[in-house]
């Protein structure tokens, strides 16, 4: 329905007004009728369309009805098809008549000037601003949806700048402008009209702290671009050119969607009529555009790798445990002395080379002896039709690597976002406790960008939970609806200690890997029955540092078995949640042999390096913690079982020794690495949350 404005008429003197292209004027024919008038007749110049609404009927003028009775309260509407060349170059004349009179008892003349005022953005999501018949004041999801998209300008295109691009009110480079969404104000009409009226670009008070708008006038020079809207600036007066003009504004997002921000922001342009001196301006037309701020999106293990990150560590300084864990006794009572990780870095580099993926090594001065790069950051991206760039999410963990994301990752077309934990960060706030599934369909509901998985204390009362600020942020992004799993049974408490995803050529395109004490006991029992009960764990490791239990000793350890029954029950609880929440069936899940140790009070840790579940996935190339399991027939039986499960899927298994460099500190390969991955081909605005 066209925007409509009511206009008063006068039989005392001619009046004039502006009609904006695409709108309608409702003329108050009854309110201006002279005393005794019973009917009216309307005429207009060729550039004006007239029609009468009377008793629920719409009649276009001129018609066979010469006069219209005033008694039912008819409406006279008009519209214009093209901008005027001169002010007042079109008009409407209303003649009033008595009941039986042939001579008018009064006339009202209205001079009209048509102007075009249009505020446009990339509502079609094509990557360019164009005019559209779609409703610019609404934003809809789905492949048939519409609405403009706005990026949070959270990268740093100018290497000389100190903060993020959206933390200052300056445009420092043309690349900075490319991160912003265009907003185009189009005006056409006689210059005299715009001289007597005012065009006001404005933002709602509640949205002002979410966006910033820049304008450079007719100049393309960077220094001409000024901050005109957003923050404390709620309105900006635009001065159009002589006959026709396009004013191009650039809009940047300042905030991601969050618990108190839906992500929707509105910008408006209003045409104000300037009355006589001493009176306030009155609005006669408003056009609006709604933007949605693009969400931060995670990528799953199954996405193609673009860059691998690992930290180099050298002995001689205190070494943080994974995600803040504390030393405690273990079944095998490993000492927590650690080696440097040079061999680990080389092994990861070799795997990355086979996967044809660049490797970035974070040196000691940058990581400050903190090797747990998976716990510190999560790589994702933001996307608009005109631009996509990666964004690193910095956890509230803030240990040795806390400055690494800003100092070494933030840069041109590489953004940064963080959330803090005012209540104090726990181990569950580290991002080893943040994963995302591949795309899934659950009972007919599609999740084309997958679902975020986070660990929690549920179903246990009390216990640790991920910080509210982080959970609220993840939920507010909407496109990867989070699922809470039970991870507080673990000492460190991360979901990456018992689950992972790998690509597969069939079914849903992936397999969910779950740690399985039951599968491990079954494997060890098989080997015992085959006569290998005296085969030992941890063969090849330093005998003085690592006890070597046999298969028989492990199977005879009732305390260890009872604890693993408990661990299996916790994993089985999560298995049921994952099947319901991700729409999985048993053939979509692989059980990976794994044992845990510890006690219920302090939580579970991996008894041997956490195979496959805590792994590095680079396409078909897998970097798996070397388990140092019992050697049977010249091969580690644990490695052999994993190969039997994964190699038929076309995956290549490489076992990496992380025992003394990571495992003894309560972490493994996945904890010590991180991967930036290729964004989804699917556009997030095509989802239906």
UniProtKB/TrEMBL annotation:
Residues 1-113 form the Protein-arginine deiminase (PAD) N-terminal domain. Its main location: cytoplasm. Residues 284-686 form the Protein-arginine deiminase C-terminal domain. It comes from the Eukaryota. It is found in: Cytoplasm. Its EC number is 3.5.3.15. It catalyses: L-arginyl-[protein] + H2O = L-citrullyl-[protein] + NH4(+). Gene3D superfamilies: L-arginine/glycine Amidinotransferase, Chain A, Protein-arginine deiminase, central domain, Protein-arginine deiminase, N-terminal domain. The gene is Padi3. Residues 115-273 form the Protein-arginine deiminase (PAD) central domain. The active site is at 375, 494, 496, 671. The keyword Cytoplasm applies. CDD domains: PAD_N. SUPFAM superfamilies: Cupredoxins, Pentein, Peptidylarginine deiminase Pad4, middle domain. It holds the Pfam family PAD. One of its GO terms (molecular function) is calcium ion binding. GO terms for cellular component: cytoplasm; nucleus. Keywords: Calcium, Cytoplasm, Hydrolase. Belongs to the protein arginine deiminase family. This is protein-arginine deiminase. The keyword Cytoplasm applies.
């Amino acid at each position: 329905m066209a925007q409509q404005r009511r206009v008063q008429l006068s039989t005392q003197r001619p009046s004039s007004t502006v009609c904006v292209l695409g709108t309608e004027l409702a003329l108050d024919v009854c309110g201006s009728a002279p005393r005794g008038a019973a009917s009216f007749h309307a005429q207009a110049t060729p550039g004006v369309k007239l029609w009468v609404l009377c008793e629920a009927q719409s009649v276009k003028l001129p018609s066979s009805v010469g006069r219209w009775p005033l008694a039912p309260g008819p409406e006279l509407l008009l519209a214009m098809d093209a901008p005027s060349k001169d002010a007042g170059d079109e008009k409407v004349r209303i003649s009033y008549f008595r009941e039986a009179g042939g001579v008018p008892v009064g006339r009202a003349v209205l001079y009209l000037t048509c102007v075009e005022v249009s505020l446009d953005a990339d509502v079609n999501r094509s990557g360019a601003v164009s005019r559209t018949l779609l409703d610019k004041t609404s934003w809809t999801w789905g492949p048939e949806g519409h609405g403009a998209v706005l990026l949070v300008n959270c990268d740093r295109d100018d290497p000389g700048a100190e903060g993020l691009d959206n933390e200052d009110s300056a445009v420092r480079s043309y690349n900075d402008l490319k991160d912003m969404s265009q907003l185009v104000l189009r005006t056409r009409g006689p210059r005299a009209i715009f001289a007597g009226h005012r065009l006001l670009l404005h933002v709602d008070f509640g949205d002002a702290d979410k966006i910033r708008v820049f304008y450079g006038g007719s100049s393309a020079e960077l220094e001409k671009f000024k901050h005109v809207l957003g923050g404390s600036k709620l309105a900006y007066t635009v001065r159009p050119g002589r006959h026709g003009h396009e004013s191009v504004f650039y809009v940047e997002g300042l905030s991601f969607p969050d618990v108190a921000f839906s992500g929707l922001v509105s910008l408006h342009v209003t045409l104000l009529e300037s009355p006589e001196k001493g009176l306030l301006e009155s609005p006669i037309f408003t056009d609006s555009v709604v933007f949605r701020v693009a969400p931060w999106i995670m990528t799953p293990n199954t996405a193609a790798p673009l860059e691998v990150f690992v930290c180099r560590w050298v002995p001689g300084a205190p070494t943080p445990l994974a995600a803040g864990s504390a030393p405690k006794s273990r079944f095998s009572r490993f000492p927590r002395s650690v080696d440097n990780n040079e061999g680990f870095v080389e092994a990861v580099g070799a795997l990355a080379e086979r996967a044809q993926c660049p490797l970035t090594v974070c040196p000691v001065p940058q990581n400050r002896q903190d090797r747990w790069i998976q716990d510190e950051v999560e790589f994702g991206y933001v996307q608009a039709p005109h631009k996509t760039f990666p964004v690193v999410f910095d956890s509230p963990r803030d240990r040795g690597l806390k400055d690494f994301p800003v100092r070494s990752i933030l840069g041109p077309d590489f953004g940064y976002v963080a959330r803090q934990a005012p209540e104090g960060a726990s181990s569950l706030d580290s991002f080893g406790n943040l994963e995302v599934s591949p795309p899934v369909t659950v009972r007919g509901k599609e999740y084309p960008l997958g679902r975020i998985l986070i660990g929690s204390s549920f179903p246990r009362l009390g216990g640790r939970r991920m910080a509210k600020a982080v959970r609220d942020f993840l939920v507010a992004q909407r496109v990867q609806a989070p699922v809470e799993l039970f991870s507080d049974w673990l000492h460190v408490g991360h979901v990456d200690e018992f689950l992972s995803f790998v690509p597969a050529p069939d079914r849903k395109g992936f397999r969910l890997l779950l740690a399985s004490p039951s599968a491990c006991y079954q494997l060890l029992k098989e080997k015992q029955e085959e006569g290998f009960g005296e085969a030992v764990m941890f063969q090849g490791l330093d005998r003085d540092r690592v006890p070597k239990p046999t298969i028989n000793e492990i199977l005879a350890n009732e305390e260890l078995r009872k604890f693993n029954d408990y661990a299996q029950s916790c994993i089985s609880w999560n298995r049921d949640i994952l099947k319901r929440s991700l729409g999985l069936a048993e053939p979509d899940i692989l059980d990976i042999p794994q044992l845990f140790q510890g006690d219920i009070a302090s939580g579970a840790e991996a008894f041997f390096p956490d195979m496959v579940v805590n792994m590095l996935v680079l396409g078909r190339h897998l970097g798996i913690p070397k388990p140092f399991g019992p050697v049977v027939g010249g091969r580690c039986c644990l490695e052999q079982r994993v190969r039997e499960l994964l190699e038929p899927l076309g995956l290549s298994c490489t076992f990496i020794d992380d025992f003394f460099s990571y495992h003894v500190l309560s972490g493994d390969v996945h904890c010590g690495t991180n991967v930036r991955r290729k964004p989804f081909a699917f556009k997030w605005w095509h989802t239906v949350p």
